[in-house]
Task: structure prediction
Amino acid sequence: MPMPATDTATEHRPRPRESGLFSFITSVLVVAATATSLAFAHEWTPGTQFLLLRSIELLVLIMYFWQFSRHNPSFLEAAGILLVGSGFLFLVFKGDLLPASVIAFMALAWLVVTWLARRWTLLRGLNTLALFMVISLASLNRLPVLKVSATFDISHSTLCQVFFCLLALIAFAPSRAWHEVRMKLNGTAILMARLLITLLFLAFFTQLVIGDALRHTQHLYPAGSDILTTHGQLFPPTDPADIFFLHLHKCWGFTVALLVLTVAWKSRRWLGNVPRLRWIPPALLIMPINQVVLGTCVILTGKNFWAPHLHALNGLGILVLSFLITVSVWAATTGIGLLGEPSPDKPITVS
Result:
């Protein structure tokens, strides 16, 4: 006789997908453009970088209005966002950062309240958030302080990586896997899966932030060409900064690589029933090794063209894959996606 249970994976009915091919293609294009911009930011000419950034902004605007037109469009909403965004950019360009910050906070609060009150779909809310982030990044790109302050530049790069993860989620959310497939998670594995995958994402995101700091402290060549030590020291002091950040990047990188391999091995079971995501664990078993090899090449060969940029691209790949697994696990255990909502006409049974 069927009886309730919490220890087995739950059966669920598929839900309709939120959008089709156009949204997917547009989001993939903007993800690729953003990854290219992040990995090769200091290699493009100013004109090429300008065109790339404007292309990203245009694609995000198209994505927003595509979702806007499909879900109860409101003229007041569109006009309000455009006017507030223009005013925010004007204040930032003038240097009035305090009123600009107040506007940004009020806009974010409006987004959260409206998203909940009007019950927006996931893509509707995410695309609106992406538009807000594009406006913020466009304003930060014009701040003169970015050219003279490493701290502000690192903060800007960190925000760009958050934006990159958001775009990856927008590309993933319309997929069949998000709406129609369930993950292999049971009551005893849920807590461990949440803990491991969230720890992995935060740890690797921290590694990328350390990498941004490292990029600002190194000059023509890395501060040390040794692998197990840094500038001949096993535990270098915090000063000079270039040697310390190189040491921190290496030590934390090896730690994160081991964590990635652990999560990749365990996630084979979690994603075993999701065909479109089944390739991620094998990829995460290979990519940390590539990252370590590429990082070693950067240290040994100096700042040539290919090694550091391939190192950056591979790092962004690990970031987005760890983020997608993180989102998948949390969505599957909270009913946002993947597992979806329990079906009332299909009993839950104990195996």
User: Anything to note?
Assistant: The radius of gyration is 22 Å. The CA atoms of residues 280 and 321 lie 7 Å apart. The chain has two domains: 1-17+184-351, 19-174. Confidence is low (pLDDT under 50) at residues 1-17, 339-351.
